[in-house]
Amino acid sequence: MDIEQRQSELIEHFVKRASAVSDAAALASVLVEATSHPSLFAFSEILALPNVLQLEATENSAFLDMLRLFAHGTWSDYKSNADRLPQLIPDQILKLKQLTVLTLAETHKVLPYDQLMQELDVTNVRELEDFLINECMYAGIVRGKLDQLRRCFEVQFAAGRDLRPDQLGNMIQTLSNWLSTSESLLVSIQEKIKWADAMSEIDKKHRKDVEEKVEDVKKSIFKADIDFRGHEEICSESGGVMDYEEDRSRPKRRRHPIS
What we know:
This is PCI domain-containing protein. The chain is mostly helical.
């Protein structure tokens, strides 16, 4: 099963569970379980549920902030706000560090080891590379190359994270620009197709004209050849009669006896 299908199934599973819970404490437990799951990396659908949003300004509001952190934040964000967030369990810490790598990969395709070690609280290169291989690449959320000589991770693919509210406007603008460019490109392609069709018709007409002219020339040559052969035959027959008549009209020589 690919990661996208697995994500979709897990999102549907936790959305149903969270939607069916009315007790705030039980809902908080579901949120902790969702953010701890090793294969779930998208949380916007859960975050949009009405009963989840109702945690705002309640004694369990910290769990709503925790969910927002997993949807949009990083490990550094957690450390900066740890005093007002629930204490994370080891599986959540691992998940948040994985999400941190995805956030860094959104804007940079070459991630220096020093930056990654600082963002992930990793103390040495061996620990960092083990984390990237075992917890990120094997999980299918990133693909890339570890360059020990340059001390960097070259990102080839990274799964997308939930859109932050401030990213929506930029995303809409980007899609609008893409749509406008696509429409212009489509018009240009259609014009080129029309031009190609017109040139094809012109070429066909020219080819037909040339073929007709070739046929006319062939017919003319054939007719001229027939006329020439007929004239030649007539001349040959006339020449034979004249030679015969001339031969008859010539006086015959008498042979003198040899003495």
